[in-house]
Amino acid sequence: MTDAAPTPTGALVLQDGTVLWGRGFGASGRSVGEVCFNTSLTGYQEIMTDPSYAGQIITFTFPHIGNTGTNPEDIETKTPAARGLIVKTDVTEPSNWRSVQNFDAWLKNWNLIGLAGIDTRRLTRLIRDTGAPTGVIVHNPAGITDAISPPPPRKRKPGPASKAWTSPKT
Fold first, then answer.
1. C-alpha–C-alpha distance, residues 170 and 168, integer Å
2. How far apart (Å, rounded) are the C-alpha atoms in residues 35 and 120?
3. In terms of residue numbers, what domain contains 17?
4. Residue 158 banded pLDDT, cuts 50, 70, 90
5. CA-to-CA distance for 154 and 169, rounded, in angstroms?
6. CA-to-CA dists, residue 139 to 89, 99, 110, 129, 144, angstroms
């Protein structure tokens, strides 16, 4: 007798069509954003509410995200700026005297999707080597059994290599 693999409840679909299956947590639904990474050891609640992460799906490389819970003092803005997050290990119950709510409930409260069970080291290397892709993060507690379309490629703003940024020849 073989055990069937559990149906994934979450996924990340990158703009190139790559699909990373995992376990969703937090809010149900889908969200589109730029996939980035963060290597901080602490401060996940501050990171999720930091305006510099607006519109992004954050890949946390540290394995213990959620273990201190959340509280009203550790926010950077009144509402979270990020669109979702990706972690390797499941979020645990908090163990901190300052915690007033576990991270999963906090994410649900703010309608943010989390995805666990992802090889965050591999994803971080991909982002580092190829740039931050647009992605769709999806969570359905009943399981994801249908195809998920990748997001459309995003338009890049002019950068240093564009004509607008080059110096005129003298």
1. 6
2. 12
3. 10-165
4. very low
5. 31
6. 16, 25, 14, 27, 8
- Determine contact, residues 61/124, Cβ cutoff 8 Å: yes
On whether residue 65 sits in a domain, the answer given is: yes
Q: Which of 84, 16, 92, 24 is nearest to 55 (CA)?
A: 84
- The confidence score (pLDDT) of residue 113 equals 97
User: Does residue 153 sit within a domain?
Assistant: yes
Residue 4 falls inside a structural domain? no
pLDDT digits (tens, 9 = 90+) for 7-61: 899 999 999 999 999 999 999 999 999 999 999 988 898 999 999 999 999 999 9
Total domains in the fold of the chain: 1
Q: What is the pTM of this model?
A: 0.83
**1 located within any domain:** no
- What CATH number is associated with residue 135? 3.50.30.20
Q: Quick one: which of 168, 26, 37, 1 has its CA closest to 9?
A: 26
A 10 A CB-CB count for 164 gives 8
Helix, strand or coil, per DSSP, at residue 15: coil
State how beta strands 134-139 and 29-38 pair. antiparallel
Tokens at 103, concatenated: 């991270």
